[in-house]
Structure formats: structure tokens, C-alpha cells
Amino acid sequence: MKAKMKILLNGIFKENPVLILALGCCSVLAVSVSVSGGLGMGLALTFVLVCSNVVISLLRNIIPSKVRIPCYIVVIATFVTLVEMLMEAYLKSLYDSLGVFLSLIVVNCIVLGRAEMFASKHTVGESFFDGLGMGIGYTMVITGMSVIRELFGAGTLLGYRIIPEGYQLSILTQAPGGFFLFGCAIAILVWAMAKHGKKFEPKMGCDGNCAACHSSCDDRKEAEAK
Amino acid sequence: MTELKVSVSPHLRSSRTTQKIMLDVIIALCPALIAASVIFGLRSLLLTAVSAAFCVVLEFAWEKLMKQPVTVSDLSAVVTGMLLAFNVPATMPIWELMVGDVVAIIVVKMLFGGIGCNFVNPALIGRVVMFFSFTADMTNFPAPKGTVDALSSATPLALIRQGSIGWEEFGQLFIGVHGGVLGETCAAALILGGVYLCARKVIKPIIPLAYLGSTLLFSWIFGSPQPVLALFSGGLMLGAIFMATDYVTSPSTNLGKLIFGLGCGLLTALMRCFANSAGAVSFSILLMNLVVPYINDLTQPKPFGGVKAK
Fold it and tell me: What is the SS3 assignment for B121?
């Protein structure tokens, strides 16, 4: 259980998908303008991530490695379609506000990345906790950013007015404000890590085992050249 | 024994310091400031003073907080603050101007390492952030004092676009008695400041002349109804003389300065003729700021007797 806990926390802090692996930034920047949208997107992604990780881990010995990416996409797309239909039926306003970014979870690099890097090499239980941890990490970042952007950019929180009309920094709800906050979040993280004496080393979720790895990263090319 | 530092040659000595250059810029800005307080009332003086003072306080506070050497005595923060105030209408709430100051000094200048390290003009970014955050207040141009009893008035640039302005209005444009932001309206005062800067050899006239000339040329090519009058409207004079010539964010070679000015002019003419948004000058200069390192690299002069590096 302790190892599972470590995998879970790994996704939230040490290998936070957004701030450290820098994956899935597109949806974070685009959707984090409102708290409801950010939270909804985070939960939808967490659901898809957990389900696809589990299914891909179950099928990891059956999927031929040559066609693994299409297979992953089929599995992921199944769950995304499920979420989409459920959300359209029961949470129509959230569905409308997320727009195309909900369907784009299919090609979200966090989901695809964890399938490739983790689920295809680990057991079902480990993959479940990895998906959950990564999902929570993503949800935390997107919700945190959307709280700041909605509060100071639009003056509301979940639609309720907090700051009176006329005292907003509406640039925060636009793209430049999103990029700025994203940069600040990474800077704060690096600063906090430096304070605790840890070096900032972005890792692509690689465990250094090139023999069992399908991807063709630079490290692998170097290793093969030797 | 104190530490001795030897830099690479040439070992030229000059009594010219950043402080003296910035003082010259402040002096050059004064005619426009006086014109603004005559045209829009004393509130423009108040806005400029608050903005300049706040910029200095911010820089001082940041450097104390980060335990860096305090550089506020070089007066560059004063110039940034004044330029920022020149970019807002006289009715702008003071707290909104202060937000612009924070962006300009803290985000653009100090986070990138202080004077000399900012990659774009701090005052322009401050202006753009205010423009997108407080669009209504930033485009609510008050009419000059003593003309009409209107709360807001159209800028000459908008009138040119409608085609409802002619040569008879030129005098009014040149003196600056029309709606607009504080520092941009009085072309005469800005040109006076520019001539002073050139005479004191603080700036070379290449960038302003290339900028204004190419704006005129390209506006005419793109079919602007009044290309000459457009030179004296909007923020073009202020931008060409005081913003585009910032040492840190403009090329250092003469050829580079020419390319920089032409690029600014082309972009300004494009945005003014084909885009319906205020701020063509700001965006042109900011975009050209970004390519300055490349312009510098490509226009490096060959040293006498030197051979091309392979």
C-alpha cells in the first residue's frame, strides 16, 4: 500500500503533469477562466485517465506494440465519448462552457503519455493509482489557476460576485493573463523546491529502463549509439 | 585593497551616466507634460507625478526586498512612470494607472533583471495590460478643456478613418487640442522634445525619422485617406520619439536602427489601415522589440581589417 501511496503522491507533486512534466498545458490555459469549468475539466480528465490507465494496463500484454498508439486512442476515445454524453445529458451548461476541450481529452498528452509511459508497463493497481494521482495533480493546478483568474479577472467565484463591478483585471481572463499565471505557478514551484534543497529536474516519467520502453527519446538514441 | 576591475578595450571615458541621459529624457518630456496640463487640466500633472513616484517606490521596494543594489537614482523608473502616464486619458482612475506601473516595473523590468535586461519596453507592456484590462477607461478620451462640454470625444485617428477630417484641422492637430491620451496629442511639444534629445545626442534621429517616414509611405500605399494627417494623430509621435528609441530595446547599429524604424512603420501602417483597434503603435514597437536581438546579430559591422568568421 505504501508503494501505491507513493505512486499517487508522485502524480500530485514530484511529477505534477502540468507544472513539472508540462503536459496538457493547452487545456489548462484555455479552460481555467472559470472555477466551474476548471473543476469540471479536471474531474472529467481524472475520470478518463483512471479508466484508460486501468483498461490499457489490463490489455498491455495483448496490444501489439506496432499498433499500440491507435489502440490507446480507441480506449481513451471510448471513455471521452462516455463523459461527453453524460455531461451533455446532465450538466449541459458545463458541457457548453468546456466546448471543444472536452472532446480534445482524447489527444490530451497527459492521458496518452501515461498510457505510453506507465500503464503499458505496470500492473492494473499501480496504473489506477498513477491515473488518480496525475488526475488530482492536474485538477489541483487547473482549479487553482481558475480561482485566481475568475476572482481577479471577472470578480466572481463560481458565478457569485465577490469583487464589485469595475475593479477587475480582465486581462487575467484572456490568454496573456493565463500564460503569466502559468509562468508564476512554475516559478513558485521551482522556488519552493530550491528552498527545500531539491534540484529542479523535469523528468518525462522515465524510469531509465530503455529496454522495456517503446518511445524513441534522445536518451535512448544516445544509449543505442554507444 | 579594493577589487580592481579591468574591462575589455576600448577604454573610453565619458562623463555621461545613465542618470544624466534619463534626466535629458525627462526634460524632453516636459513640453508635452506642460501641453497636457494646459489641454486636459491639472489632473494630467497629478497622474504623471503619481505614476513616476509610484514607479520609483516600486523599484526601490523590490530591490530592498530582493537585497539587490538600489538603482532608483538612475531615474529610469521616473521615465517609465512618466511615459506610462502619458499613455492614459486624463480621466483614468489612479489605481488603474498604478496597476500599469506594477506591471511595467515589477513584471517587465525587475523580474527580467532590472535596467538593461528588459526585452521589451516596460511602459508599453504596462499600457497594453491596462488597455486590455480597463478598455472602457483607457478609450474614454476627454475633450480638451474649454472646447465643448462633452464627456468624451472621438480621436483624430477615428475621424480620419471616417474621412471627416481635412487639412483645415492640421493646426489643431499640431497644437494638440483634440481628444486623446495625455502625452500624445500635442505633436509640437513632442517634436520639440525630440529635437532636444537629438541636439543633446541622447538619441540618433534615425529611428524616429525611419519610423515616421515609412508610416507615411506605407499608409499612402495602403490607401489611407489622409496619410500626412495620420502622422500627427494617435500615439505615433510619442511612440516614434520616446518609446521606439529606448536604448535597451532598440538595435545598436545604424543599419539596425533603420531596419527597426522601417519595420515599426510598416506594422503601424498595416494595423492602422486594416485593423480596427487602438494601439497600433504600441503593438508595432513591441513586436519589433522582440526581433531586436536578431537585427543586432545580422547588422554587426565588420571590424577594420577583420575577416568574416567561419
Answer: coil
Name residue A73's amino acid.
I
Distance separating alpha carbons of residues A149 and A159, to the nearest angstrom: 12
Chain B touched by A163 (CB under 8 Å): no
Residue ranges of chain B whose pLDDT lies below 50: 149-151
pLDDT score at B86:
92
Distances (CA, A) of A37 to A44, B209, B241, B284: 10, 50, 45, 35
Percent of chain A with pLDDT over 90: 34
Q: For residues B161 and B140, give the distance between their C-alpha atoms in angstroms, rounded to a whole number.
A: 18
Instruction: Give the contacts of B93 (CB within 8 A, at least 6 positions apart).
Output: B134, B137
- Give the amino acid at B58: L
Residues 6 or more apart whose CB falls under 8 angstroms from that of B284 comprise: B239, B263, B264, B265, B267, B268, B271
Q: In terms of C-beta distances under 8 Å and separation of at least 24 residues, what long-range contacts does B266-270 make, across chains too?
A: B266/B214, B266/B218, B268/B211, B268/B215, B268/B218, B268/B236, B269/B214, B269/B215, B269/B217, B269/B218, B269/B219, B269/B221, B269/B222, B269/B224, B270/B218, B270/B222
List chain B domain ranges: 18-298
Say yes or no for a CB contact (<8 Å) between A171 and B99: no
Tell me which residue of A180, A175, A122 sits closest to A3, measured CA to CA. A122
Interchain proximity B132–A180, CB inside 8 Å: no
Instruction: Please give the pLDDT value at position A51.
Output: 94
Name the minimum distance, in Å, from the CA of A170 to any CA of chain B.
4
CATH number of B18-298, picked from 1.10.260, 1.10.8, 1.10.3430, 2.90.10: 1.10.3430
Please determine, for residue A209, whether its predicted confidence score (pLDDT) is greater than 70: no
- Does residue A219 register a pLDDT over 90? no
Dist CA A213 CA A202 (whole Å): 18
The reported pLDDT for the residue numbered B230 is: 80
Q: Are B58 and B50 in contact (CB under 8 A)?
A: no
**CB contact A156 to B (< 8 Å):** no
Alpha helices, DSSP H, located in chain B: 18-40, 43-65, 76-86, 94-102, 122-133, 135-138, 156-162, 170-175, 187-199, 206-221, 227-231, 236-238, 254-274, 280-298
Residues 82-101 of B with CB under 8 A from A: 99
What is the per-residue pLDDT for A223?
59
Distance CA B165, CA B161 (A): 9
- Kindly report the nearest CA distance between residue B107 and chain A, in angstroms: 10
- CA-to-CA distance for A181 and A18, rounded, in angstroms? 13
ipTM passes above 0.90: no
